[in-house]
Amino acid sequence: MTPQDDQQPSLSFFAGAAGQPESPICSGKGCRTAAAWVLVWNNPKLHTPDRRKTWLACDEHREHLSQFLGVRGFLKEVLPFAEWTGTEAQAEAQAQPPVAPPEA
Ligand SMILES: [Zn+2]
Asked: How far, in Å, is the centroid of ligand 1 from the Cα of 46?
């Protein structure tokens, strides 16, 4: 991912919150909003068919990031962050056989 080097100073009050667990944030460029969605995707040119990559998105960037992946045919599914609790990591470890995209 591209380094988020254009953070807004308006959120600097978070910097003083030492000891605060780092909450997952949106993958949108420069976005520091807490993630509300998980975009599950796979690039057939780089990944085996059963491999799953994930992007995190806030409400604002869910559509943009979904389209970015969707137009390339990478997007697999979009899940509410609350429903994504490491199940993808388990699925990846199960070495499932390759399957064709259902919409093909
Ligand atoms: Zn965002």
From this structure: 25
